[in-house]
Amino acid sequence: MNIFKLLKKNKLFYNFEDKEINKIFDCLHGHINKYSRGRVVAEIGQPVEEIGILLTGAAVKFIKKPNGELENCGEIFAGDMFGEVEAYTGDRTFNSSVVIAEEATVLYISVATIVKQCSNNCPCHQKLLENTLSCLAERIDTMGVDAKYLKIKSMRGKISKLFYDKYLAQGTETIHLGFNRNEMAEYLNVSRPSMSREMIAMREDGIIKFRKDEIVILNVDELQRLANEAR
Amino acid sequence: MNIFKLLKKNKLFYNFEDKEINKIFDCLHGHINKYSRGRVVAEIGQPVEEIGILLTGAAVKFIKKPNGELENCGEIFAGDMFGEVEAYTGDRTFNSSVVIAEEATVLYISVATIVKQCSNNCPCHQKLLENTLSCLAERIDTMGVDAKYLKIKSMRGKISKLFYDKYLAQGTETIHLGFNRNEMAEYLNVSRPSMSREMIAMREDGIIKFRKDEIVILNVDELQRLANEAR
DNA sequence: TAGTGTTTGTATCTTAAGCTACAAACATCA
DNA sequence: TGATGTTTGTAGCTTAAGATACAAACACTA
Shortest Cα distance from B137 to chain A (angstroms)? Predict the structure, then answer.
């Protein structure tokens, strides 16, 4: 496995050179641990001193419900990280536990050293800081977009907004969703049959046609209208 | 008006001393502008070079819909800021326009100087950076919580989760909402009458009683169950 | 304390979307 | 090419929540 390649995919190390990544180990107190399945690598309420980046394997995040039950709240794969938000919040404690699901290697970097300029005054430090800021800011953007879909009440509105946004992003009348009906329904937070029903109604209305992951917009104006009116 | 007091309320300047705030002006290239109603102080698509902090007055944020129409997407009052997220995203351009609604004074601080250590190596710079990170991270947290309510499908689930969360936060069976029915309905993204109806049903079921902004939880266990089961 | 505005409660009706369960289409691979 | 698993479409029923419109309670102040 190539650590350099993997890390460069991680947003924190965007724009890093190999030699800069090497500095992680002294500059940011980087170290790598290996864990087997079931190992708890982060625990709710514990202070976040390091950010963990999964180099191999997989892990699952859990939040604790007030009655003590644990609830799965997401998965982490190679290239993903944990603690990168909590590290900067008020109490700096994990708000979810992370449990290794498949034998994994984790690279840790120290939070304290990210925010402080290091004595070597190295540019990689500066970059990491900027990347951290971007990483957080972009997350806010994404969450804002996601919330928009959730707030739209009508099925047709949700679908239209989603398709129209994809249309704007992809620039062609033929768009690709990037997920199947189940995933799309889950993203929009609706039931798949209801969504399917409405998509077919939209096809009957001549707005779209589709086949699997590929959607063709037949009436852009109407779709735009629906997307804009949606609430 | 006391700039110091106001700025210390702003999250970016949390923990700042008066004398450190004074440094803003040379260290962060701070400067103050005064605007009258109608003035556009940020425009969608334009690069964000500074973060604006409203010292007095009020402003409105607009996003541009694809058909060109502008849509109100939030208000800004004294102590609030704009550009503090976009400043760090990929293209670093405003994604909403900001228009002054009431004669306002705005303090600007340079983004470029926030992320770079300044030549004076002043601690205020360091603090500002940490505050910026907190500010963004906490926003992510908040948005995550907000999205949770949106994702719950049943009315009773939404209400229960909200009340239960407030109960956990406030620690007493008598909780205060901090908003009226309209605002609460808007936050949960439901219609007020439907919400009212369900609150009354919950009262009839002996789970809560209420009067205006004050809610008393009569059956904590049941409320907890509802909040946990909610989806 | 009357008068106005706001917030909250109530009623009725309608409909969109959820759920379940099944059928059809498609993909994959031996 | 048949067998199996997955994804997508279809149907019918039920119900929760939306919309609207009005009434009651309350708050403010003149």
Answer: 5
- B189 closest CB neighbour out of A134, A144, A151: A151
Q: Supply the pTM of this predicted model.
A: 0.92
- Rounded to whole angstroms, the Cα distance separating B73 from B61 reads 5
Predicted confidence (pLDDT) per residue in A110-149, tens digit? 999 888 866 666 777 888 999 999 999 999 999 999 999 9
Among B103, B83, B110, B77, smallest CA distance to B9 is for B77
Within 7 Å of a protein beta carbon, the nucleotides of strand C are 7-12, 16-21, 27
Residues in CB range of A166: below 8 A, 6 or more apart:
A175, A176, A177, A215
Burial of B106 from C-beta contacts in 10 A (0-12 / 13-18 / 19+): buried
For residue B45, what is the DSSP state?
A: T
Give the whole-angstrom CA distance, residue A121 versus residue A182: 49
> What is the per-residue pLDDT across A155-186, written as a single tens digit (0 to 9) for each?
999 999 999 999 999 999 999 999 999 999 99
Nearest nt to the CA of A211 via C1' is: D8
State the Cα–Cα distance between residues B96 and B72, nearest whole angstrom.
9
Q: Residue B223: in which H helix or E strand, if any?
A: helix B220-229
Smallest Cα–Cα separation from A75: which of A91, A86, A60?
A: A60
Surface-to-core class of residue A162, CB atoms within 10 Å of its CB (0-12 exposed, 13-18 middle, 19+ buried): buried
